[in-house]
Amino acid sequence: MRAAVLRQYNADLSIEEVPDPVCEPDGVVLKVLACGICRSDWHGWTGEHPRVKPGQIPGHEYCGEVVEAGPLAKWRVGDRVVAPFILSCGACPDCQSGQGHTCKNQRLPGFTEPGAFADLVSVPMAHNLARLPESLSPVVAAGLGCRVTTAWHALTGRAAVQAGEWLAIHGTGGIGLSCLILGRAMGARVIVVDVVPEKLDHALSLGAEIAIDARQGDVAARIVEATGGGAHVSVEALGIEATTNGSIECLRALGRHVQVGMPVGHTARMQINMNAVYMKNLALFGTRGMPSWRYPSLLALIEAGRVDMRPLIAREVKLADASAELRAFNGPTPPGVAVIVGLGA
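Structure for Alcohol dehydrogenase, as requested:
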Protein backbone atom coordinates (compact mmCIF):
# COMPACT_ATOMS: atom_id res chain seq x y z
CA MET A 1 0.00 0.00 0.00
CA ARG A 2 0.99 3.66 -0.34
CA ALA A 3 1.85 5.64 2.75
CA ALA A 4 3.43 8.97 3.66
CA VAL A 5 6.30 8.23 6.04
CA LEU A 6 8.13 10.63 8.35
CA ARG A 7 11.81 9.99 7.64
CA GLN A 8 13.22 13.30 8.87
CA TYR A 9 11.77 16.08 11.01
CA ASN A 10 10.80 19.27 9.16
CA ALA A 11 11.29 17.59 5.80
CA ASP A 12 8.87 16.35 3.16
CA LEU A 13 7.15 13.09 4.03
CA SER A 14 8.34 10.19 1.92
CA ILE A 15 5.63 8.60 -0.26
CA GLU A 16 6.46 4.90 -0.19
CA GLU A 17 5.11 1.42 -0.83
CA VAL A 18 4.94 -0.31 2.57
CA PRO A 19 3.51 -3.65 3.74
CA ASP A 20 -0.24 -3.81 4.31
CA PRO A 21 -1.19 -3.59 8.01
CA VAL A 22 -2.06 -6.63 10.11
CA CYS A 23 -5.56 -6.97 11.55
CA GLU A 24 -5.55 -7.53 15.32
CA PRO A 25 -8.07 -9.95 16.91
CA ASP A 26 -10.14 -7.13 18.45
CA GLY A 27 -9.58 -4.73 15.57
CA VAL A 28 -10.23 -3.99 11.93
CA VAL A 29 -8.29 -2.88 8.89
CA LEU A 30 -9.84 0.10 7.14
CA LYS A 31 -9.55 1.30 3.59
CA VAL A 32 -8.97 4.98 4.35
CA LEU A 33 -11.64 7.14 2.73
CA ALA A 34 -10.30 10.47 4.02
CA CYS A 35 -7.87 11.74 6.65
CA GLY A 36 -7.61 15.20 8.16
CA ILE A 37 -4.34 17.10 8.56
CA CYS A 38 -4.09 18.46 12.09
CA ARG A 39 -1.78 20.74 14.04
CA SER A 40 -1.01 17.70 16.21
CA ASP A 41 0.44 16.06 13.07
CA TRP A 42 2.60 19.17 12.71
CA HIS A 43 3.89 18.79 16.28
CA GLY A 44 5.09 15.32 15.33
CA TRP A 45 6.51 16.47 11.99
CA THR A 46 8.62 19.15 13.72
CA GLY A 47 9.98 16.69 16.30
CA GLU A 48 8.29 18.36 19.28
CA HIS A 49 5.81 15.56 19.96
CA PRO A 50 7.66 13.17 22.29
CA ARG A 51 5.95 10.06 20.94
CA VAL A 52 6.48 10.61 17.22
CA LYS A 53 9.74 9.20 15.87
CA PRO A 54 11.19 8.89 12.34
CA GLY A 55 9.60 5.99 10.52
CA GLN A 56 6.12 6.94 11.67
CA ILE A 57 3.13 7.12 9.34
CA PRO A 58 1.13 10.16 10.57
CA GLY A 59 -2.63 10.58 10.44
CA HIS A 60 -5.14 10.32 13.28
CA GLU A 61 -8.30 11.98 11.88
CA TYR A 62 -9.65 9.27 9.64
CA CYS A 63 -12.73 7.48 8.50
CA GLY A 64 -12.81 4.37 6.40
CA GLU A 65 -14.44 1.20 5.15
CA VAL A 66 -13.78 -2.11 6.86
CA VAL A 67 -11.85 -4.49 4.57
CA GLU A 68 -10.88 -6.99 7.28
CA ALA A 69 -12.29 -7.63 10.76
CA GLY A 70 -10.78 -9.61 13.62
CA PRO A 71 -12.78 -12.41 15.28
CA LEU A 72 -13.44 -10.27 18.39
CA ALA A 73 -14.58 -7.18 16.47
CA LYS A 74 -18.29 -6.41 16.04
CA TRP A 75 -17.77 -4.84 12.60
CA ARG A 76 -18.15 -6.50 9.22
CA VAL A 77 -16.46 -6.02 5.87
CA GLY A 78 -18.10 -3.09 4.08
CA ASP A 79 -19.07 -1.16 7.22
CA ARG A 80 -18.14 2.53 7.09
CA VAL A 81 -16.85 3.89 10.36
CA VAL A 82 -15.23 6.92 11.97
CA ALA A 83 -12.65 6.75 14.75
CA PRO A 84 -11.69 8.85 17.75
CA PHE A 85 -7.96 9.51 17.80
CA ILE A 86 -7.65 7.91 21.27
CA LEU A 87 -8.48 4.21 21.25
CA SER A 88 -9.28 3.02 24.77
CA CYS A 89 -9.12 -0.52 26.13
CA GLY A 90 -12.64 -0.52 27.59
CA ALA A 91 -11.63 -2.56 30.64
CA CYS A 92 -9.44 -0.40 32.91
CA PRO A 93 -10.86 1.70 35.80
CA ASP A 94 -10.79 4.88 33.68
CA CYS A 95 -12.73 3.21 30.86
CA GLN A 96 -15.18 1.59 33.26
CA SER A 97 -15.91 5.00 34.77
CA GLY A 98 -16.72 6.41 31.33
CA GLN A 99 -13.45 8.31 30.88
CA GLY A 100 -11.89 6.28 28.11
CA HIS A 101 -9.98 9.30 26.77
CA THR A 102 -7.75 9.02 29.88
CA CYS A 103 -7.23 5.24 29.46
CA LYS A 104 -3.77 4.15 30.62
CA ASN A 105 -3.71 1.45 27.90
CA GLN A 106 -4.73 3.73 25.06
CA ARG A 107 -3.53 3.16 21.50
CA LEU A 108 -2.76 6.09 19.20
CA PRO A 109 -2.56 5.45 15.45
CA GLY A 110 -0.59 8.27 13.89
CA PHE A 111 1.49 8.83 17.02
CA THR A 112 2.64 5.56 18.58
CA GLU A 113 1.77 3.24 15.71
CA PRO A 114 1.10 3.58 11.97
CA GLY A 115 -1.54 6.14 11.12
CA ALA A 116 -3.87 6.93 8.25
CA PHE A 117 -1.75 8.95 5.83
CA ALA A 118 -2.00 5.68 3.90
CA ASP A 119 -4.32 3.55 1.79
CA LEU A 120 -5.00 1.23 4.74
CA VAL A 121 -4.85 1.58 8.51
CA SER A 122 -5.07 -1.03 11.26
CA VAL A 123 -7.41 -0.01 14.08
CA PRO A 124 -7.09 -2.11 17.25
CA MET A 125 -9.75 -2.07 19.97
CA ALA A 126 -12.42 -1.48 17.34
CA HIS A 127 -15.16 -1.09 19.96
CA ASN A 128 -14.14 2.60 19.89
CA LEU A 129 -15.38 3.05 16.31
CA ALA A 130 -18.71 4.63 15.42
CA ARG A 131 -20.77 3.92 12.32
CA LEU A 132 -20.53 6.67 9.70
CA PRO A 133 -24.02 8.13 9.10
CA GLU A 134 -25.24 8.01 5.51
CA SER A 135 -25.78 11.76 5.59
CA LEU A 136 -22.18 12.53 6.53
CA SER A 137 -19.55 12.61 3.81
CA PRO A 138 -16.20 10.91 4.51
CA VAL A 139 -14.41 14.23 3.97
CA VAL A 140 -16.38 15.95 6.72
CA ALA A 141 -16.27 12.86 8.93
CA ALA A 142 -12.48 12.81 8.75
CA GLY A 143 -12.43 16.11 10.63
CA LEU A 144 -14.48 14.72 13.51
CA GLY A 145 -11.96 12.30 15.03
CA CYS A 146 -9.78 14.92 16.69
CA ARG A 147 -10.74 18.56 16.46
CA VAL A 148 -14.55 18.28 16.50
CA THR A 149 -14.74 15.53 19.13
CA THR A 150 -12.23 17.39 21.30
CA ALA A 151 -14.19 20.62 20.92
CA TRP A 152 -17.49 18.87 21.74
CA HIS A 153 -16.09 17.36 24.93
CA ALA A 154 -14.38 20.63 25.89
CA LEU A 155 -17.63 22.58 25.67
CA THR A 156 -19.98 19.96 27.12
CA GLY A 157 -17.98 17.51 29.23
CA ARG A 158 -15.61 20.06 30.74
CA ALA A 159 -16.81 23.69 30.58
CA ALA A 160 -20.56 22.90 30.50
CA VAL A 161 -21.29 25.91 28.31
CA GLN A 162 -24.80 27.30 28.80
CA ALA A 163 -27.06 29.15 26.38
CA GLY A 164 -26.54 32.90 26.59
CA GLU A 165 -23.01 32.69 27.98
CA TRP A 166 -20.10 34.46 26.35
CA LEU A 167 -17.62 32.00 24.86
CA ALA A 168 -14.19 33.36 23.91
CA ILE A 169 -12.07 31.34 21.48
CA HIS A 170 -8.37 32.07 21.12
CA GLY A 171 -7.24 30.77 17.73
CA THR A 172 -9.53 29.97 14.80
CA GLY A 173 -7.86 26.87 13.37
CA GLY A 174 -9.66 23.52 13.30
CA ILE A 175 -10.33 23.38 17.04
CA GLY A 176 -11.32 27.03 17.22
CA LEU A 177 -13.75 26.79 14.31
CA SER A 178 -15.21 23.60 15.77
CA CYS A 179 -15.78 25.34 19.11
CA LEU A 180 -17.38 28.26 17.28
CA ILE A 181 -19.81 26.10 15.29
CA LEU A 182 -20.72 23.88 18.25
CA GLY A 183 -20.84 26.77 20.72
CA ARG A 184 -23.29 28.64 18.51
CA ALA A 185 -25.46 25.49 18.29
CA MET A 186 -25.50 25.41 22.10
CA GLY A 187 -26.72 29.00 22.26
CA ALA A 188 -23.47 30.64 23.34
CA ARG A 189 -22.45 34.13 22.24
CA VAL A 190 -19.06 33.70 20.61
CA ILE A 191 -16.10 36.04 20.42
CA VAL A 192 -13.03 34.94 18.45
CA VAL A 193 -9.39 36.01 18.54
CA ASP A 194 -6.75 35.55 15.82
CA VAL A 195 -4.01 37.41 13.96
CA VAL A 196 -5.18 36.62 10.40
CA PRO A 197 -7.89 39.02 9.10
CA GLU A 198 -9.23 36.42 6.63
CA LYS A 199 -9.73 33.93 9.46
CA LEU A 200 -11.54 36.52 11.56
CA ASP A 201 -13.82 37.35 8.63
CA HIS A 202 -14.46 33.63 8.12
CA ALA A 203 -15.38 33.24 11.80
CA LEU A 204 -17.79 36.17 11.58
CA SER A 205 -19.44 34.54 8.57
CA LEU A 206 -20.00 31.42 10.70
CA GLY A 207 -21.78 33.30 13.45
CA ALA A 208 -19.19 34.84 15.75
CA GLU A 209 -20.57 38.09 17.21
CA ILE A 210 -17.20 39.75 17.73
CA ALA A 211 -13.78 39.18 16.14
CA ILE A 212 -10.63 40.58 17.73
CA ASP A 213 -7.31 41.00 15.94
CA ALA A 214 -4.69 40.12 18.56
CA ARG A 215 -2.10 42.31 16.82
CA GLN A 216 -3.97 45.41 17.94
CA GLY A 217 -3.32 45.30 21.67
CA ASP A 218 -4.57 43.94 24.97
CA VAL A 219 -6.90 41.11 23.96
CA ALA A 220 -8.14 40.32 27.46
CA ALA A 221 -9.10 43.92 28.24
CA ARG A 222 -10.94 44.24 24.95
CA ILE A 223 -12.92 41.04 25.62
CA VAL A 224 -13.81 42.20 29.14
CA GLU A 225 -15.08 45.49 27.71
CA ALA A 226 -16.95 43.92 24.79
CA THR A 227 -18.72 41.36 26.98
CA GLY A 228 -19.56 43.66 29.85
CA GLY A 229 -17.31 42.00 32.41
CA GLY A 230 -15.55 39.13 30.68
CA ALA A 231 -16.26 35.79 29.06
CA HIS A 232 -17.96 33.03 31.03
CA VAL A 233 -15.93 30.38 29.20
CA SER A 234 -12.68 30.79 27.30
CA VAL A 235 -11.02 28.18 25.08
CA GLU A 236 -7.32 28.29 24.28
CA ALA A 237 -6.87 26.52 20.94
CA LEU A 238 -3.19 27.02 20.13
CA GLY A 239 -1.12 25.78 23.07
CA ILE A 240 1.13 28.83 23.56
CA GLU A 241 1.81 31.05 26.56
CA ALA A 242 0.48 34.37 25.23
CA THR A 243 -2.94 33.01 24.28
CA THR A 244 -3.21 30.88 27.42
CA ASN A 245 -2.75 33.95 29.59
CA GLY A 246 -5.08 35.94 27.37
CA SER A 247 -7.70 33.25 27.80
CA ILE A 248 -7.38 33.25 31.58
CA GLU A 249 -7.30 37.03 31.91
CA CYS A 250 -10.35 37.63 29.69
CA LEU A 251 -12.66 35.72 32.03
CA ARG A 252 -15.14 37.23 34.45
CA ALA A 253 -15.29 36.09 38.08
CA LEU A 254 -16.06 32.35 38.36
CA GLY A 255 -15.22 31.88 34.68
CA ARG A 256 -13.93 28.63 33.15
CA HIS A 257 -10.75 28.33 31.09
CA VAL A 258 -10.37 25.24 28.89
CA GLN A 259 -6.91 24.28 27.64
CA VAL A 260 -7.49 22.56 24.31
CA GLY A 261 -4.37 23.67 22.43
CA MET A 262 -1.52 21.19 22.93
CA PRO A 263 1.34 22.52 25.09
CA VAL A 264 4.23 20.34 23.95
CA GLY A 265 7.95 20.74 23.34
CA HIS A 266 9.06 24.29 24.05
CA THR A 267 5.52 25.28 25.16
CA ALA A 268 5.05 22.41 27.61
CA ARG A 269 5.88 24.68 30.56
CA MET A 270 4.51 28.22 30.72
CA GLN A 271 4.44 31.20 33.06
CA ILE A 272 0.77 31.57 33.96
CA ASN A 273 -1.03 34.46 35.65
CA MET A 274 -2.16 32.48 38.68
CA ASN A 275 -3.10 35.70 40.47
CA ALA A 276 -5.96 36.11 38.00
CA VAL A 277 -7.03 32.53 38.73
CA TYR A 278 -6.92 33.22 42.48
CA MET A 279 -8.54 36.66 42.54
CA LYS A 280 -11.40 35.80 40.17
CA ASN A 281 -12.04 32.29 41.53
CA LEU A 282 -11.51 30.76 38.10
CA ALA A 283 -11.73 27.11 37.10
CA LEU A 284 -9.04 25.70 34.81
CA PHE A 285 -9.82 22.61 32.73
CA GLY A 286 -7.55 20.52 30.57
CA THR A 287 -9.08 18.41 27.84
CA ARG A 288 -7.74 15.94 25.28
CA GLY A 289 -9.98 13.89 23.07
CA MET A 290 -13.42 12.54 23.91
CA PRO A 291 -14.70 9.24 25.33
CA SER A 292 -15.86 7.17 22.37
CA TRP A 293 -19.27 6.50 23.97
CA ARG A 294 -20.09 10.20 23.44
CA TYR A 295 -20.00 9.87 19.63
CA PRO A 296 -23.78 9.34 19.32
CA SER A 297 -24.55 12.69 20.99
CA LEU A 298 -22.30 14.50 18.52
CA LEU A 299 -23.42 12.57 15.44
CA ALA A 300 -27.08 13.03 16.38
CA LEU A 301 -26.56 16.79 16.53
CA ILE A 302 -25.07 16.73 13.03
CA GLU A 303 -27.67 14.33 11.58
CA ALA A 304 -30.50 16.45 12.97
CA GLY A 305 -29.16 19.46 11.07
CA ARG A 306 -28.48 21.46 14.22
CA VAL A 307 -24.86 21.95 13.20
CA ASP A 308 -23.17 21.98 9.81
CA MET A 309 -19.49 21.05 9.99
CA ARG A 310 -18.92 21.45 6.25
CA PRO A 311 -17.56 25.02 6.55
CA LEU A 312 -14.70 23.57 8.59
CA ILE A 313 -13.25 21.95 5.45
CA ALA A 314 -11.37 24.38 3.23
CA ARG A 315 -9.23 22.12 1.07
CA GLU A 316 -9.29 18.57 -0.27
CA VAL A 317 -5.73 17.52 -1.09
CA LYS A 318 -3.82 14.47 -2.30
CA LEU A 319 -1.43 12.43 -0.18
CA ALA A 320 1.53 14.03 -1.96
CA ASP A 321 0.33 17.47 -0.79
CA ALA A 322 0.42 16.59 2.92
CA SER A 323 3.95 17.93 3.40
CA ALA A 324 3.00 21.37 2.10
CA GLU A 325 0.00 21.46 4.45
CA LEU A 326 2.21 20.52 7.42
CA ARG A 327 4.75 23.18 6.48
CA ALA A 328 1.98 25.79 6.38
CA PHE A 329 1.52 25.37 10.16
CA ASN A 330 4.93 27.05 10.60
CA GLY A 331 3.17 30.40 10.17
CA PRO A 332 -0.35 31.80 10.28
CA THR A 333 -2.59 29.47 8.32
CA PRO A 334 -5.47 30.33 5.97
CA PRO A 335 -9.08 29.74 7.06
CA GLY A 336 -10.36 26.20 7.39
CA VAL A 337 -8.64 22.82 7.42
CA ALA A 338 -7.30 20.38 4.84
CA VAL A 339 -8.39 16.76 4.34
CA ILE A 340 -6.53 14.14 2.34
CA VAL A 341 -8.71 12.36 -0.22
CA GLY A 342 -7.97 9.75 -2.89
CA LEU A 343 -6.65 7.24 -0.36
CA GLY A 344 -7.51 3.56 -0.49
CA ALA A 345 -8.02 3.71 -4.27
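The first helix runs from residue 39 to 46.
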